[in-house]
Specification:
Layout (H helix, E strand, L loop, with lengths): L4 H7 L5 H16 L5 E3 L2 E4 L4 H15 L7 E4 L16 H17 L21 E3 L2 H11 L8 H10 L1 E3 L13 E6 L5 H15 L4 E4 L6 H14 L6 E2 L17 E6 H9 L9 E9 L1 H10 L11 E5 L1 H6 L2 H9 L2 E4 L9 H4 L3 E4 L2 H10 L3 E4 L2 H8 L4
Protein backbone atom coordinates (compact mmCIF):
# COMPACT_ATOMS: atom_id res chain seq x y z
CA UNK A 1 0.00 0.00 0.00
CA UNK A 2 1.26 3.46 -0.91
CA UNK A 3 1.62 5.75 2.13
CA UNK A 4 2.41 9.45 2.28
CA UNK A 5 5.31 10.65 4.42
CA UNK A 6 2.90 11.71 7.14
CA UNK A 7 1.19 8.31 7.08
CA UNK A 8 4.55 6.55 7.24
CA UNK A 9 5.51 8.70 10.24
CA UNK A 10 2.31 7.73 12.05
CA UNK A 11 2.90 4.06 11.20
CA UNK A 12 6.46 4.23 12.56
CA UNK A 13 5.24 5.60 15.89
CA UNK A 14 6.43 9.19 15.59
CA UNK A 15 3.00 10.49 16.65
CA UNK A 16 2.56 8.12 19.57
CA UNK A 17 1.49 4.51 20.16
CA UNK A 18 -2.28 5.07 19.90
CA UNK A 19 -2.08 6.62 16.44
CA UNK A 20 0.46 3.98 15.45
CA UNK A 21 -1.86 1.12 16.44
CA UNK A 22 -4.75 2.72 14.61
CA UNK A 23 -2.69 3.17 11.45
CA UNK A 24 -1.41 -0.41 11.60
CA UNK A 25 -4.96 -1.75 11.66
CA UNK A 26 -6.07 0.43 8.74
CA UNK A 27 -3.02 -0.53 6.67
CA UNK A 28 -3.41 -4.25 7.36
CA UNK A 29 -7.11 -4.07 6.54
CA UNK A 30 -6.41 -2.21 3.32
CA UNK A 31 -3.64 -4.56 2.23
CA UNK A 32 -5.79 -7.61 2.94
CA UNK A 33 -8.59 -6.25 0.74
CA UNK A 34 -6.44 -4.87 -2.05
CA UNK A 35 -6.51 -1.14 -1.32
CA UNK A 36 -3.68 0.76 -2.99
CA UNK A 37 -3.82 3.78 -0.66
CA UNK A 38 -5.75 5.56 2.07
CA UNK A 39 -8.34 8.25 1.42
CA UNK A 40 -9.23 11.22 3.63
CA UNK A 41 -12.67 11.19 5.30
CA UNK A 42 -14.59 14.30 6.31
CA UNK A 43 -16.86 12.61 8.86
CA UNK A 44 -16.49 9.50 11.02
CA UNK A 45 -19.47 8.04 12.89
CA UNK A 46 -18.58 5.68 15.72
CA UNK A 47 -20.96 2.79 16.36
CA UNK A 48 -20.94 0.37 19.28
CA UNK A 49 -20.87 2.76 22.24
CA UNK A 50 -23.73 1.38 24.34
CA UNK A 51 -22.41 -0.48 27.37
CA UNK A 52 -25.24 -2.97 26.79
CA UNK A 53 -23.52 -3.99 23.55
CA UNK A 54 -19.79 -3.59 24.11
CA UNK A 55 -19.43 -4.42 27.82
CA UNK A 56 -16.18 -4.05 29.75
CA UNK A 57 -13.98 -5.03 26.79
CA UNK A 58 -15.40 -2.23 24.64
CA UNK A 59 -15.19 0.24 27.51
CA UNK A 60 -11.51 -0.53 28.05
CA UNK A 61 -10.84 -0.26 24.30
CA UNK A 62 -12.36 3.23 24.13
CA UNK A 63 -10.53 4.36 27.25
CA UNK A 64 -7.23 3.16 25.81
CA UNK A 65 -7.63 5.33 22.73
CA UNK A 66 -9.09 8.30 24.59
CA UNK A 67 -5.55 9.47 25.35
CA UNK A 68 -5.48 11.11 21.90
CA UNK A 69 -7.81 13.21 19.75
CA UNK A 70 -9.73 12.38 16.59
CA UNK A 71 -8.46 13.99 13.39
CA UNK A 72 -11.76 14.46 11.58
CA UNK A 73 -15.30 15.54 12.44
CA UNK A 74 -16.74 12.65 14.45
CA UNK A 75 -20.18 11.76 15.78
CA UNK A 76 -21.40 8.78 17.79
CA UNK A 77 -24.20 6.21 17.90
CA UNK A 78 -26.85 5.80 20.67
CA UNK A 79 -26.11 4.96 24.31
CA UNK A 80 -27.91 2.43 26.50
CA UNK A 81 -30.30 5.05 27.93
CA UNK A 82 -31.27 8.73 27.94
CA UNK A 83 -28.58 10.45 30.01
CA UNK A 84 -31.19 12.73 31.61
CA UNK A 85 -33.68 9.97 32.44
CA UNK A 86 -31.52 7.04 33.54
CA UNK A 87 -33.05 6.81 37.01
CA UNK A 88 -36.57 7.01 35.60
CA UNK A 89 -35.67 4.20 33.18
CA UNK A 90 -34.58 1.98 36.09
CA UNK A 91 -30.92 1.81 35.06
CA UNK A 92 -28.70 0.44 37.86
CA UNK A 93 -25.92 2.65 39.25
CA UNK A 94 -23.17 0.32 37.99
CA UNK A 95 -24.53 0.27 34.43
CA UNK A 96 -24.90 4.06 34.50
CA UNK A 97 -21.37 4.54 35.82
CA UNK A 98 -19.80 2.40 33.10
CA UNK A 99 -21.85 4.06 30.36
CA UNK A 100 -20.71 7.41 31.73
CA UNK A 101 -17.07 6.27 31.46
CA UNK A 102 -17.71 5.56 27.78
CA UNK A 103 -19.17 9.04 27.32
CA UNK A 104 -16.16 10.62 29.03
CA UNK A 105 -13.75 8.62 26.89
CA UNK A 106 -15.47 9.83 23.73
CA UNK A 107 -15.43 13.38 25.06
CA UNK A 108 -11.67 13.23 25.68
CA UNK A 109 -11.18 12.03 22.11
CA UNK A 110 -13.07 15.06 20.79
CA UNK A 111 -16.12 13.11 19.58
CA UNK A 112 -19.34 15.10 19.29
CA UNK A 113 -21.88 13.83 21.82
CA UNK A 114 -24.66 13.24 19.33
CA UNK A 115 -25.67 9.72 20.47
CA UNK A 116 -27.84 9.09 17.43
CA UNK A 117 -28.14 6.57 14.61
CA UNK A 118 -29.08 9.40 12.22
CA UNK A 119 -25.87 11.43 11.82
CA UNK A 120 -27.24 12.77 8.52
CA UNK A 121 -29.58 14.97 10.58
CA UNK A 122 -26.51 16.42 12.30
CA UNK A 123 -24.50 16.96 9.14
CA UNK A 124 -25.91 15.87 5.78
CA UNK A 125 -23.20 14.38 3.53
CA UNK A 126 -22.46 15.85 0.12
CA UNK A 127 -22.19 13.96 -3.15
CA UNK A 128 -18.77 12.35 -3.49
CA UNK A 129 -17.63 12.94 0.09
CA UNK A 130 -15.71 10.11 1.74
CA UNK A 131 -16.96 9.05 5.18
CA UNK A 132 -16.24 6.34 7.77
CA UNK A 133 -19.62 5.41 9.21
CA UNK A 134 -20.48 2.36 11.27
CA UNK A 135 -24.28 2.42 11.57
CA UNK A 136 -25.97 0.34 8.86
CA UNK A 137 -28.98 2.59 8.18
CA UNK A 138 -26.72 5.64 8.07
CA UNK A 139 -24.24 3.98 5.72
CA UNK A 140 -27.01 3.10 3.28
CA UNK A 141 -28.61 6.54 3.55
CA UNK A 142 -25.29 8.32 2.95
CA UNK A 143 -24.39 6.20 -0.07
CA UNK A 144 -27.85 5.81 -1.57
CA UNK A 145 -29.69 9.06 -0.83
CA UNK A 146 -26.76 11.48 -0.62
CA UNK A 147 -24.23 10.02 -3.05
CA UNK A 148 -21.49 10.11 -0.41
CA UNK A 149 -19.07 7.19 0.02
CA UNK A 150 -18.62 4.93 3.02
CA UNK A 151 -18.20 1.23 3.58
CA UNK A 152 -20.01 -0.49 6.44
CA UNK A 153 -17.33 0.01 9.04
CA UNK A 154 -17.20 -1.95 12.28
CA UNK A 155 -17.15 -0.27 15.68
CA UNK A 156 -13.35 -0.45 16.19
CA UNK A 157 -12.57 0.57 12.60
CA UNK A 158 -14.68 3.73 12.96
CA UNK A 159 -12.55 4.66 15.97
CA UNK A 160 -9.32 4.06 14.04
CA UNK A 161 -10.65 6.01 11.05
CA UNK A 162 -11.63 8.91 13.30
CA UNK A 163 -8.17 9.00 14.90
CA UNK A 164 -6.31 8.93 11.59
CA UNK A 165 -8.90 10.79 9.53
CA UNK A 166 -8.59 8.25 6.72
CA UNK A 167 -9.77 4.82 5.55
CA UNK A 168 -8.47 2.35 2.97
CA UNK A 169 -9.55 3.31 -0.55
CA UNK A 170 -11.64 0.24 -1.33
CA UNK A 171 -15.21 -1.02 -1.52
CA UNK A 172 -17.78 1.63 -2.41
CA UNK A 173 -15.20 4.40 -2.05
CA UNK A 174 -14.14 3.28 -5.54
CA UNK A 175 -16.16 4.22 -8.64
CA UNK A 176 -16.01 0.75 -10.16
CA UNK A 177 -17.83 -0.73 -7.17
CA UNK A 178 -20.70 1.74 -7.26
CA UNK A 179 -22.79 -0.01 -9.90
CA UNK A 180 -26.08 -1.95 -9.56
CA UNK A 181 -26.05 -5.71 -9.80
CA UNK A 182 -29.73 -6.57 -9.26
CA UNK A 183 -32.81 -4.82 -10.66
CA UNK A 184 -35.77 -4.80 -8.23
CA UNK A 185 -39.20 -3.77 -9.48
CA UNK A 186 -41.79 -2.90 -6.83
CA UNK A 187 -45.39 -3.79 -7.69
CA UNK A 188 -47.01 -2.55 -4.49
CA UNK A 189 -47.75 0.89 -2.99
CA UNK A 190 -45.57 2.21 -0.17
CA UNK A 191 -48.12 3.79 2.17
CA UNK A 192 -45.82 4.92 4.97
CA UNK A 193 -42.56 4.20 6.80
CA UNK A 194 -43.68 0.69 7.76
CA UNK A 195 -43.95 -0.42 4.14
CA UNK A 196 -40.80 1.39 3.07
CA UNK A 197 -38.87 -0.40 5.81
CA UNK A 198 -40.37 -3.76 4.90
CA UNK A 199 -39.47 -3.17 1.25
CA UNK A 200 -35.85 -2.63 2.25
CA UNK A 201 -35.94 -5.76 4.39
CA UNK A 202 -37.37 -7.90 1.56
CA UNK A 203 -34.81 -6.56 -0.91
CA UNK A 204 -32.01 -7.31 1.55
CA UNK A 205 -33.05 -10.93 2.00
CA UNK A 206 -32.82 -11.31 -1.77
CA UNK A 207 -29.64 -9.38 -2.67
CA UNK A 208 -27.57 -10.15 0.47
CA UNK A 209 -24.25 -8.43 -0.37
CA UNK A 210 -25.11 -7.30 -3.92
CA UNK A 211 -26.03 -3.74 -4.91
CA UNK A 212 -29.70 -3.37 -5.91
CA UNK A 213 -31.37 -0.81 -8.13
CA UNK A 214 -34.95 -0.35 -6.87
CA UNK A 215 -37.49 0.92 -9.39
CA UNK A 216 -41.15 1.91 -9.35
CA UNK A 217 -41.23 3.20 -5.77
CA UNK A 218 -42.94 6.46 -6.65
CA UNK A 219 -42.35 9.77 -4.91
CA UNK A 220 -41.53 8.68 -1.39
CA UNK A 221 -40.63 11.01 1.47
CA UNK A 222 -37.17 11.35 2.97
CA UNK A 223 -38.44 9.63 6.13
CA UNK A 224 -39.52 6.67 4.01
CA UNK A 225 -36.08 6.56 2.37
CA UNK A 226 -34.59 6.40 5.85
CA UNK A 227 -36.89 3.51 6.78
CA UNK A 228 -36.08 1.68 3.55
CA UNK A 229 -32.35 1.97 4.25
CA UNK A 230 -32.86 0.70 7.80
CA UNK A 231 -34.78 -2.34 6.56
CA UNK A 232 -32.18 -3.10 3.91
CA UNK A 233 -29.36 -2.81 6.43
CA UNK A 234 -31.15 -5.23 8.76
CA UNK A 235 -31.34 -8.13 6.32
CA UNK A 236 -28.25 -7.60 4.17
CA UNK A 237 -24.61 -6.57 4.26
CA UNK A 238 -24.76 -4.32 1.21
CA UNK A 239 -23.63 -0.72 1.88
CA UNK A 240 -25.34 0.76 -1.18
CA UNK A 241 -28.55 0.70 -3.16
CA UNK A 242 -29.79 2.87 -6.00
CA UNK A 243 -33.28 4.33 -5.69
CA UNK A 244 -35.00 5.44 -8.87
CA UNK A 245 -35.49 9.23 -8.99
CA UNK A 246 -33.69 9.63 -5.64
CA UNK A 247 -30.05 8.49 -5.75
CA UNK A 248 -27.89 11.31 -7.19
CA UNK A 249 -25.64 8.99 -9.19
CA UNK A 250 -28.38 7.32 -11.26
CA UNK A 251 -28.52 10.15 -13.79
CA UNK A 252 -24.85 9.58 -14.67
CA UNK A 253 -25.25 5.86 -15.29
CA UNK A 254 -25.76 4.21 -18.63
CA UNK A 255 -27.71 1.25 -17.36
CA UNK A 256 -28.46 -1.80 -19.45
CA UNK A 257 -31.35 -3.24 -17.48
CA UNK A 258 -31.49 -6.41 -19.56
CA UNK A 259 -28.07 -7.45 -18.30
CA UNK A 260 -28.98 -7.19 -14.61
CA UNK A 261 -30.36 -9.98 -12.45
CA UNK A 262 -34.04 -9.22 -11.86
CA UNK A 263 -36.67 -9.65 -9.15
CA UNK A 264 -40.16 -8.31 -8.46
CA UNK A 265 -41.86 -7.57 -5.14
CA UNK A 266 -45.64 -7.63 -4.78
CA UNK A 267 -48.22 -6.92 -2.09
CA UNK A 268 -48.16 -10.50 -0.81
CA UNK A 269 -44.46 -10.16 -0.02
CA UNK A 270 -45.28 -7.33 2.40
CA UNK A 271 -48.07 -9.32 4.02
CA UNK A 272 -45.78 -12.30 4.53
CA UNK A 273 -43.30 -10.19 6.50
CA UNK A 274 -45.95 -8.53 8.67
CA UNK A 275 -47.53 -11.90 9.44
CA UNK A 276 -44.25 -13.23 10.86
CA UNK A 277 -44.87 -10.91 13.81
CA UNK A 278 -47.79 -11.17 16.18
CA UNK A 279 -50.80 -8.93 15.85
CA UNK A 280 -50.79 -7.27 19.25
CA UNK A 281 -53.97 -5.63 20.53
CA UNK A 282 -52.05 -4.47 23.58
CA UNK A 283 -48.41 -3.87 24.47
CA UNK A 284 -46.22 -2.56 27.28
CA UNK A 285 -45.34 0.37 25.05
CA UNK A 286 -45.58 1.73 21.53
CA UNK A 287 -42.08 2.52 20.29
CA UNK A 288 -41.43 4.89 17.39
CA UNK A 289 -37.90 5.94 16.54
CA UNK A 290 -35.78 3.21 14.96
CA UNK A 291 -33.98 4.91 13.25
CA UNK A 292 -34.30 8.07 15.33
CA UNK A 293 -37.26 10.25 14.42
CA UNK A 294 -36.91 13.36 12.30
CA UNK A 295 -38.50 16.66 13.26
CA UNK A 296 -41.18 16.00 10.64
CA UNK A 297 -42.04 12.58 12.04
CA UNK A 298 -42.43 13.97 15.56
CA UNK A 299 -44.69 16.75 14.35
CA UNK A 300 -46.69 14.15 12.41
CA UNK A 301 -47.34 12.30 15.68
CA UNK A 302 -48.33 15.62 17.25
CA UNK A 303 -50.96 16.11 14.54
CA UNK A 304 -52.21 12.53 14.86
CA UNK A 305 -52.90 12.81 18.57
CA UNK A 306 -54.79 16.09 18.25
CA UNK A 307 -58.11 14.26 17.83
CA UNK A 308 -57.82 12.50 21.20
CA UNK A 309 -59.20 14.21 24.32
CA UNK A 310 -57.68 11.62 26.65
CA UNK A 311 -54.38 10.08 27.65
CA UNK A 312 -52.98 7.12 25.78
CA UNK A 313 -53.76 3.88 27.63
CA UNK A 314 -50.44 2.44 26.48
CA UNK A 315 -47.33 4.64 26.88
CA UNK A 316 -45.95 5.91 23.59
CA UNK A 317 -42.18 6.38 23.44
CA UNK A 318 -40.71 8.63 20.74
CA UNK A 319 -36.94 8.53 20.35
CA UNK A 320 -34.83 11.09 18.55
CA UNK A 321 -31.44 12.78 18.56
CA UNK A 322 -30.42 15.53 20.93
CA UNK A 323 -30.35 17.96 18.01
CA UNK A 324 -33.94 17.25 16.93
CA UNK A 325 -35.13 17.15 20.55
CA UNK A 326 -33.98 20.74 21.02
CA UNK A 327 -35.91 21.82 17.90
CA UNK A 328 -39.26 20.53 19.16
CA UNK A 329 -41.47 23.44 20.37
CA UNK A 330 -42.32 23.51 24.11
CA UNK A 331 -46.07 23.33 23.41
CA UNK A 332 -45.55 20.03 21.58
CA UNK A 333 -43.54 18.57 24.47
CA UNK A 334 -46.23 19.73 26.90
CA UNK A 335 -49.01 18.02 24.96
CA UNK A 336 -46.96 14.83 24.73
CA UNK A 337 -46.57 14.83 28.49
CA UNK A 338 -50.32 15.28 29.00
CA UNK A 339 -51.15 12.46 26.57
CA UNK A 340 -48.76 9.86 28.10
CA UNK A 341 -46.17 10.24 25.34
CA UNK A 342 -42.51 10.22 26.35
CA UNK A 343 -39.95 11.99 24.14
CA UNK A 344 -36.43 10.71 24.83
CA UNK A 345 -32.93 11.06 23.42
CA UNK A 346 -29.56 9.31 23.31
CA UNK A 347 -30.74 5.71 23.08
CA UNK A 348 -32.73 3.03 21.26
CA UNK A 349 -34.45 -0.10 22.58
CA UNK A 350 -32.13 -2.22 20.40
CA UNK A 351 -29.11 -1.13 22.48
CA UNK A 352 -30.92 -0.65 25.82
CA UNK A 353 -31.01 -3.09 28.77
CA UNK A 354 -34.71 -3.85 28.43
CA UNK A 355 -34.70 -6.18 31.43
CA UNK A 356 -34.50 -3.09 33.66
CA UNK A 357 -37.31 -1.33 31.81
CA UNK A 358 -39.78 -4.20 32.26
CA UNK A 359 -40.73 -4.21 28.60
CA UNK A 360 -41.82 -7.56 27.12
CA UNK A 361 -44.37 -6.56 24.46
CA UNK A 362 -43.75 -3.74 21.96
CA UNK A 363 -45.77 -2.29 19.11
CA UNK A 364 -43.71 -0.50 16.44
CA UNK A 365 -43.69 0.69 12.82
CA UNK A 366 -40.05 -0.35 12.33
CA UNK A 367 -39.04 -3.69 10.83
CA UNK A 368 -35.50 -3.10 12.12
CA UNK A 369 -36.79 -2.64 15.63
CA UNK A 370 -39.06 -5.67 15.34
CA UNK A 371 -36.27 -7.89 14.03
CA UNK A 372 -33.71 -7.02 16.70
CA UNK A 373 -36.08 -6.90 19.65
CA UNK A 374 -37.48 -10.33 18.86
CA UNK A 375 -34.17 -11.96 17.92
CA UNK A 376 -31.82 -10.38 20.46
CA UNK A 377 -34.03 -9.42 23.40
CA UNK A 378 -36.76 -12.04 23.05
CA UNK A 379 -39.46 -9.37 23.13
CA UNK A 380 -42.89 -9.98 21.55
CA UNK A 381 -43.33 -7.46 18.76
CA UNK A 382 -46.28 -6.32 16.68
CA UNK A 383 -45.83 -4.39 13.43
CA UNK A 384 -48.28 -1.80 12.14
CA UNK A 385 -48.46 1.59 10.46
CA UNK A 386 -47.66 4.68 12.51
CA UNK A 387 -51.25 5.88 12.69
CA UNK A 388 -52.53 2.45 13.73
CA UNK A 389 -49.81 2.11 16.42
CA UNK A 390 -50.98 5.39 17.92
CA UNK A 391 -54.65 4.43 17.64
CA UNK A 392 -54.07 1.17 19.53
CA UNK A 393 -52.21 3.11 22.24
CA UNK A 394 -55.30 5.29 22.67
CA UNK A 395 -57.59 2.28 22.94
CA UNK A 396 -58.85 1.97 19.36
CA UNK A 397 -59.24 -1.47 17.82
Amino acid sequence: MYLTREEEAILSGEHGPEYQKAMKVLVKLGEALGAERLVKVVHAHISGISYQNIGDAGLEFLEEYSKVKVRTYTTSNPLGFDMNLWREMGIPEEFYAKQLRIVKALRRMGVNETFTCTPYYIRKPLVGEHLAWGESNAVLYANSACGARTNREGGPSTVFAALIGKVPYMGVHVDENRVPQVLIKVNAPLRDQLYAGILGYIVGTYVKDKVPLIRNIGKITDDMVKALCAGLGTSSSTPLCFLENISPEISKMKLKYLELEKAEIDTQSFKDVIETYETLDSADTVFLGCPHLSYGEIMEVYRYIGKYDRKAKTPIILVTSRKVFEEIPPYVKLLFEKKNIKLIRDTCFVVSPLKYLGIRKVLTNSIKQAYYLSNIHGVRVGLCETRKCIGIAFGER
